[in-house]
User: Fold Phosphoserine phosphatase from Trinickia dabaoshanensis.
Amino acid sequence: MNLVVQSPEPLAAAHVKPLVALARGGQAHSIDLCALRIAEADPAQRPDIESYCATHALDYAYVPSGRALRDFGLVAMDMDSTLITIECIDEIADFCGLKAEVSAITEASMRGEIKDFNESLTARVALLKGLDAQALEQVFAERLRLSPGAETMLAAAKAAGLRTLLVSGGFTFFTERLKAQLGLDFAHANTLEIVDGKLTGKVVGEIVNASVKARTVRETCAKLGITTSQAIVMGDGSNDLEMMAEAGLSVAFRAKPVVRAAASVAFNHVGLDGLLRLF
Assistant:
């Protein structure tokens, strides 16, 4: 296996010798100023590498040697707190003066403490009843920001021939705009009901929960004529676990502990473009 170690800042030369020793690997090669690759690393040394990297705010990943980005056919991403830096529903709730209340439910749901995502989403959306739909426009224009490295990662994935899927327990108002803005191939999310320019506090149609996310990844792979092992799936919350389990490579991005523990790779410090250094 190759061990890839990354830093959000230029990687200090002082890290090279201890990392090679801990990895029990071969030669270390610089990928760029912020990352290095150690060949023939022993995955049994993961606990020591984990401890060192956690201490020094580094990210690491074990990757089979010779694996290339073009070996995959799809990159599927969660939206809130993954492709973008915010939780849209929390920001919408801010316009009702209920951000703290809604954020608390969102956090508990993403940590896996609320097992029924449908119930969690329904409860949060109900609190938005009567809000002017113009608030959605304001959230998109004023508060929504892409996560670091998002555009670089997407450009490289597209150049390598991968298709792109945004699959979210959030709302189509945002996913469709991001799809158009970023040139994504597919998007699937929940639809907020709006009547006479105001939110009704209801979601229209099937709720995009964990199992629907996983099904969407499977269906998109089938549409593309690839297996789910050729999908890269990125997420941060417990409702991403099922679709991440479908993937050939799963990436936990600034994720909750339960998600980091289950993922192939965790990026706690670097941006989404950290994906590119793995190959």
In short: The radius of gyration is 20 Å.
